[in-house]
Amino acid sequence: MDVVCVHDAARPLVSARTVRAVVEAAFTGGAATAASRPSDSVRADIAGGNSVALDRSTLWLVETPQAFRREILERGHLEAVSRGNAFTDDASLVEAIGHPIHIVESEGRNLKITLAADLMLAAELLRAS
Q1: Is residue 93 within 8 Å of residue 77, measured between CB atoms?
Q2: 2 phi and psi, to 5 degrees?
Q3: 54, 65, 66, 72: which has the fewest Cβ within 10 Å?
C-alpha cells in the first residue's frame, strides 16, 4: 500500500515527529492531516453583518503535511477535476469523496510563512533552536 505525503514549502518548520505521525495515520485510516487548535476566539459571519462565537474546542486549523493512501488521493483529484471543483487543500477534496480525515495535532510550531513578519518569526525560531 502506497501512501503519498503532501507538504507545502510555506511550512518549513514542521517537526519530523508530526510528519511521521501523519504518515502513520494515513497508513491506518487512509487519510490524515496535521492541524492545531486555534488559540484566538473565533467568530462566524451571519446575516446582516452580525457574527456568532464558535466553540474553538471543536475547531482545528488545517496544516500540512497531509498524507493519503495513493488510490484515495488519486480518486479525490479525479473527482474534483471531473466535477470542476476547486479545494484549498487535498484533505478537503478527499473528504468530498466521502473519506474521513484523521487529524494529527501538530507538535511544536508548524508556522505557515505567508507574510514578511512570518518569515522574520521563522528566522528567530531557527536562531533560537
Answers
A1: yes
A2: -90, 140
A3: 54
DSSP state of 88: S
Q: Which of 112, 106, 108 is nearest to 22 (CA)?
A: 106
- Report domain extents, the chain: 3-128
Which amino acid, residue 40? D
Closest CA to 129 of 20, 36, 13: 13
**CA atoms of 85 and 94, how far apart (whole Å):** 12
Query: For 22-61, how does the pLDDT look when each residue is reduced to its tens digit (9 = 90+)?
Result: 999 999 999 999 999 999 999 999 988 899 999 999 999 9
Q: Which residue has the cell 492531516?
A: 33
Instruction: Kindly report the CATH class assigned to 3-128.
Output: alpha beta
